[in-house]
Specification:
The complex is a heterodimer of chains A (431) and B (253). Chain A is of the alpha/beta class. In chain A, 23% of the residues lie in helices and 38% in strands. Chain A is globular, with a radius of gyration of 21 Å. The chains are: A alpha/beta (431), B alpha/beta (253). The A-B interface holds A 377, 379-380, 382-391, 393-394, 397-398, 400-402, 404-405 and B 48-50, 71-73, 75-77, 82, 84, 87-88, 90-93, 98-99, 101-103, 105-106, 141-142, 158, 162. The structure holds adenosine-5'-diphosphate and magnesium ion. Magnesium ion (MG) binds next to helix 1 of chain B.
Chain lengths: 431, 253
């Protein structure tokens, strides 16, 4: 009786945080323990967002934070029938590093390892870990305080990666709560492509709260392909914090294929001159999925260029949110910033909230933004059917065509094929 | 080939077709003429299966089957082809790839193996020569950025690729200069056999200098009000439609 009473009096935050009581981080490096303690202090003064918070206006976190979760290292992970690459691949299971499922090749000038290992040996991690993480965001702070493990990719000066690096977080038990944490550091002139993928073999209301910090130094190039393919009942909040120095190129393609509630917080700080930034996203939604893409791109210096293209295909009762902000600082003359969000709404009960925003304080810039929402073109559908394509193929063809410019942005062939296949499989079957 | 009886169709509650009767036999070419707004495109679209148009009365038998009961794709697979008056631009959809899908889906329905890539390409090459499109089709999206004439030639190209039994050409000649007109007409004539047929919708006589019809029908206010031999087209060219309209109004009063 007493226990029940106590539970009732706990606030939602206390209750959520009590999930972490069983976790012991005493093994961690001291600099990291300090960060954890600092984050815990900060969390005391933060609360979960409500509909009154502009930043979270369209995404309720109630259902996420009120969930009952467990935190566990899986025991039996060998029976997996999942397509996991057998090369340059770090697999986290339920947020923990899995040496059995991971494949790490050594290459000159490249560190690819678990975060826990890198913390003890990698200078960049020791120096910069946590430095980009926003202190006013409760989910990011929770990750800092309670992260289990993650992946680190660090490329030395002028190192060109010939292979694609895969970071996979697999959820493999019921009601799992995990805080995976990744760290990518691209030294001057280096070049790499990364796949950051979340998958889930359990359909039981899990919550993945992932944070990835990314440093792209002078003249370096990085492409991240983020594939979110958990389950019909999974929750995910994914935060990426990126800084870009002079002459660097950063590209991130976000594909949200599954998930009950998915929230992406993508924050790019373009610190340098002459940077190129590409942000692309595709969210083909069905059922009651709710996917919220928030992006914030800050242009601080002159002569930078950014291209943002997000596309949504909304079926059934799904909800999409696009909120993309590009901020052009007073100093950032000659900025070219282009932002666009396009949506196809396939049913009367699907909704999209689209808010592209430009905030410009420089006067010599070329910027544009736009948002379109419509249905599949009936005339085109009829034209294709009149040539003998079934209704299903005609739809698939048109959806593919709509998605094609985002898909073409993918620089990793295997992922390109996977996304194309996903569209084909899902849009042949729709009424 | 096709037998249309007492066909009535409406859109948004307005009756456009008011009892069409028409029979086309294998090997025949029928021209349908008539002033703008008389319902020519409506007839073509109803036959192709556009579901915005509601059929309230009548029947259409195509090769022994109830056409009105079929989905647009099944009509196409059964051998009906419509060359659109206004071909749609479809960005991002490859002109060649979608035809390949269409042809192979139709073959699958008939229990045939998919056409090999080699055979398909050979056919593309041969048929695009017919309408003098050459290499201009490859790698392009359906009708995207095509000139008016290219769009119409692309319709005939697709017709050639699909080898239909009955082709309905809806004003394929309008907007074409004389060279393009000849190319299109040549294409149609090349494809003519004793086993297929076409319905050529036009409101100029000049196309009929190249495609010689067996019958000319005049459609007016949703009805076929006059049918005659190919000379009727010349008479219409000379005298316009007024005399037929007058004739028609005398009858109805
Ligand atoms: N989609 C439509 N919605 C409303 N009215 C239409 C539509 N299509 C055709 N009509 C009307 O039907 C009549 C016949 O049009 P149409 O068949 O295009 O004539 P034609 O091809 O002979 O010029 C016209 O009065 C036209 O306004
Ligand atoms: Mg017309």
């Amino acid at each position: 009786m007493e226990v029940l009473q106590e539970t009732k009096d706990m606030t939602a935050k206390e209750q959520f945080l009590s999930h972490f009581d069983t976790q012991d981080f005493s093994f961690d490096e001291s600099f990291s323990i300090e960060k954890r303690e600092e984050a815990k202090k900060i969390i005391e003064d933060l609360s979960f967002p409500t509909s009154k918070d502009e930043y979270w206006k369209y995404t309720r976190t109630n259902r996420i934070v009120k969930g009952k979760y467990s935190i566990s290292i899986p025991e039996n992970e060998m029976e997996l029938d999942l397509a996991i690459p057998s090369k340059n691949c770090i697999v986290l299971v339920n947020g923990y590093y899995s040496p059995e499922l991971s494949f790490i090749e050594s290459a000159e000038g490249i560190l690819f390892s678990s975060l826990s290992k890198a913390k003890s040996s990698n200078e960049m991690v020791q120096k910069h870990f946590g430095s980009l993480t926003k202190k006013d965001e409760i989910f990011a702070m929770i990750n800092t305080a309670y992260h289990q493990d993650g992946a680190v990719l660090h490329l030395g000066k002028n190192v060109q990666a010939n292979e694609v690096y895969y970071i996979i977080n697999l959820i493999d038990d019921d009601h799992i709560l995990s805080n995976p944490r990744n760290f990518i550091f691209m030294e001057q002139g280096s070049n790499a492509k990364v796949v950051l993928k979340t998958i889930n073999s359990s359909n039981t209301g899990t919550f993945t709260n992932m944070v990835t910090e990314v440093f792209v130094e002078k003249n370096a190039q990085l492409e991240i392909n983020k594939v979110q393919d958990e389950s019909e009942s999974s929750f995910q909040i994914a935060t990426e914090q990126i800084v870009q120095a002079n002459d660097s190129t950063f590209k991130i393609n976000t594909f949200t294929l599954s998930g009950n509630i998915v929230r992406n917080n993508l924050n790019i700080d373009s610190l340098g001159k002459n940077t190129m930034t590409y942000l692309n996203g595709l969210y083909p939604l069905k059922g009651k999925q709710h996917v919220d893409n928030h992006s914030y791109l800050l242009h601080r210096e002159p002569n930078c260029e950014s291209h943002e293209l997000y596309k949504g295909i909304l079926n059934d009762q799904s909800t999409g949110v696009f909120n993309g902000k590009v901020f052009v600082h007073r100093e950032a003359q000659k900025t070219n910033a282009f932002q666009s969000n396009a949506n196809i709404v396939m049913s009367d009960t699907a909704t999209i909230n689209s808010k592209p925003e430009l905030e410009i304080y420089a006067d010599d810039v070329k910027c544009s933004h736009g948002s379109t929402t419509g249905q599949l073109d009936d005339e085109a559908l009829f034209y294709l059917r009149a040539r003998g394509l079934s209704k299903e193929s005609a739809r698939a063809v048109l959806v593919n065509a709509f998605a094609s410019d985002v898909i073409e942005q993918i620089g990793v062939e295997a992922i390109k094929d996977e996304i194309k296949q996903f569209i084909d499989d899902n849009y042949q079957g729709i009424k | 080939m096709i037998k249309i009886e007492n066909l009535h169709a409406s859109i948004d509650g307005n009756e456009i077709l008011k009892g069409i009767n028409l029979e086309v036999k294998a090997g025949e070419v029928h021209a349908i003429m008539g002033p703008n707004g008389s319902g020519k495109s409506t007839l073509a679209n109803v036959l192709a299966g556009r579901d915005e148009y509601k059929v309230s009365e009548g029947s259409v038998i195509f090769l022994g089957e109830d056409l009105l009961d079929m989905e647009p794709e099944d009509r196409s697979r059964a051998g009906l082809f419509l060359a659109f008056q206004y071909p749609v631009e479809i960005p991002g959809v490859s002109n060649i790839n979608f035809l390949k899908t269409a042809i192979n889906e139709a073959r699958e329905k008939k229990g045939l193996k998919p056409m090999s890539a080699k055979d398909f390409l050979r056919r593309v090459k041969e048929k695009s020569k017919l309408v003098e499109l050459g290499g201009r089709l490859a790698n392009r999206s359906v009708n995207e950025g095509f000139s008016g004439g290219e769009k119409k030639r692309n319709e005939i190209f697709q017709m050639a690729m699909l080898e239909p039994k009955l082709s309905i050409l809806d004003e394929t000649d309008s907007g074409l200069d004389i060279d393009a007109l000849r190319i299109v007409a040549n294409g149609v004539n090349e494809l003519k056999t004793k086993d297929n047929a076409s319905i050529v919708i036009t409101h100029y006589q000049r196309l009929l200098d190249y495609i010689i019809p067996d019958f000319v029908h005049v459609l007016y206010k949703g009805k076929i009000v006059k049918t005659g031999p190919k000379e009727l087209a010349l008479e219409l060219e000379e005298k316009g439609y007024d005399w037929i309209i007058q004739e028609q109004e005398t009858i109805s009063t």
